[in-house]
Amino acid sequence: MELVNRIVNGDRRAVARAITMIENGSPEKHDVLKALHSYTGRAYLVGITGPPGAGKSTLTDQLLFLLRKQGLQVGVIAVDPTSPFTGGAILGDRVRMGSHALDPGVFIRSMGTRGSLGGLAKATKEATRVLDAYGVDVVLVETVGVGQSELDIMHVADTTVVVLNPTAGDHIQTMKAGIMEIADVFVINKSDLPGADKTEREVNNMLDLIHDFDWRPPVVRTTSRDPGTFRELWEACSNHRVFLQESGGWEKKRQKRRQDEIVGIIEERLHQKIREWIENHATWQQVLEEVESGKKDPYQVADLILECYNTSTCD
Fold first, then answer.
1. How confident is the model at residue 113 (pLDDT cuts 50, 70, 90)?
2. What family is reported (predicted)?
């Protein structure tokens, strides 16, 4: 397949086209992803999440400078809120990371959530596969910034970085049940501002209450005024990667990701097939009227549909 060959040979336009196909749900995307599969599995995926205003975009930008100085090829997927008018991302990647837009060693793509919850766009996982096959060393996935619901990133990333700011100290306990529990690395960003000490103390106090983790998430302080602090952040991420590889967690995590991906594909296809069957069934309107009148209940109808669909006995 020509598009696949172009991607694995480093054609940026082919990568952009493939991701657009994925976002738009093109039927061709399945053939492309199938063909790319054997070229994936090498990139290190780092998720960057946290509440709005924590400075995730600035942190991602600083990491890009650092990784490029190390000679690494980097892909970035920045998930933004969706415009209710165009369906696209409200914030553009080149607006926030314009200094990297023309760097051939960096590929940046903004993706609108398009109604998807969990902080990621529905197509994010598949887009990371394309970037992986393209040959990047690291993929940075920046979530939309909606707070406690941003849990999907843990199913995509090898290392999840949770970004907080110095004003977060008073809210650590309310956040604990959400994104606070998925962190592999904590970052107190804008740490030159008042309140950084308190926030760091609150995070460590929370971690002290947890006794069943093999990896205690380090708490790193960063500030754009001191680029060296981002080296400490990347070192913490790298240490987590080594920990996963040496403990066997690396393969377990990726195996779980592959399993979830397969189950997700099955669910998506079954959902689509059953919906198409329902919409094309001659007596469907009559069934709905029977549910409305109380002659049948929704659960009874669902069981009947599943039974006849699985046994191909529906007339």
1. low
2. Belongs to the SIMIBI class G3E GTPase family. ArgK/MeaB subfamily.
